[in-house]
Amino acid sequence: MQFRKYHGCGNDYVYVDCFRQPPPSDPAALSRVISDRHFGVGGDGLILICPSERADARMRMFNADGSESEMCGNGVRCVAKFVYDQGLVRKPSLTVETGRGVLALELEIVGGRVRQVRVDMGEPILEAAKIPTTLPGAPSLNAPLEVGGHTLTVTCVSMGNPHCITFVDAITDAQVLGLGPQVERHPAFPRRTNVEFVRVNRQDDLTLRVWERGSGETLACGTGACATAVAGVLTGRTGRRVTAHLPGGDLQLYWSEIDNHVYMTGPAVEVFSGDWPDQRSGAGA
């Protein structure tokens, strides 16, 4: 099975072209094995690039633990780069089908290859039952959440996948690595959740670290950055245009007052390509 490794701000996945080769028979099992950073290729998960009847391509995303997720903001930018650079679809504007729906992407092309991508991430989902969360409010703003002997003040937003955002004065390992996994599996989130710890630097500038559902802390989370931008506006902490600093790099975010869509711009980088032996778990038709 041929694969390519890409990252967006350090949020790295193994990508498989299912236009030109059969999809893996057990992608969940394959994701667990191939994502291992010691015994596999290494990554935050596995992304399959498949034909679509509704868009230029379809993206299926599996976390490192094998669970399938609806969407990945950094991942979808890399899908666009893969699709364009590998000649599957040669257009500067693409559509990609995801678990969130069909997203529109604008490509910045330099020297015949994609350098960065602007993604229309659609409207944020704020209704608690659709995020989903059992925390009160529509939306759930500045809600108290008891976890690990602490009371966090959280705001919940979905960008097609659930996010729980808490604003703090300083981001620490104790929060991200200690409380993050507890919040991910808190009973208030029936489908688990991604967890963002955020420091606001200015009205247009913030720093965050993310504990991702099914993958642990990652160097960046595109949907998490988008959800954080929305939470910043809803709680009066930021304006609608912000730069998000993540451990792996920066993303530019804009929550439009015109169409209510969130727009994310960031890089997409190819790292290397290779062949995965078919006898390993999940590969092959």
**SSE pattern:** EEHEEEHEEEEEEHEEEHEEEE
Say which CATH homologous superfamily of the largest domain is assigned.
Diaminopimelate Epimerase, Chain A, domain 1
Q: Identify the quaternary structure here.
A: single chain
In percent, how much strand structure appears in the residues? Answer: 35-45%
Query: Biggest sheet, in brief?
Result: 18 strands, mixed
Q: Which topology of the largest domain does CATH recognise?
A: Diaminopimelate Epimerase, Chain A, domain 1
Question: What is the SS-derived class?
Answer: alpha+beta
Helix count from the secondary structure assignment = 4
Tally of distinct domains: 2
Terminal CA distance reads: 10 Å
- What characteristic shape results from the CA principal axes? globular
Estimate the helix proportion, in percent. 10-25%
